[in-house]
Amino acid sequence: MKILAIETSCDETAAAIVEDGQTVLGTSIASSLDLHQVTGGVVPEVAAREHPLKIWPVIEDTLSQAKLKLEEIDAIASTAGPGLLPALLTGYLTAQTIALTLGKTFIPVHHTLGHIYANFLERNPKEIRFPIVVLTVSGGHNQLMLLRDHFDFEVIGQTRDDSAGEAFDKVARLLGLGYPGGPEISRMAKDGDPQKIALPYAWLNENNSKEKWDGANFDFSFSGVKSAVKREVEKHGKLDPQFVRNCSASFQEVATEVLAQKLIGAGEKYGAKEIHLAGGVSANTHLRNKIQTKSEGKFTFRFPAKFLYCTDNACMIGAVAYYQDKFKIFPEIKDADPNLTLDLFKKD
Ligand code: KG4
Ligand code: ZN
Question: Structure pTM?
Answer without folding.
Answer: 0.95
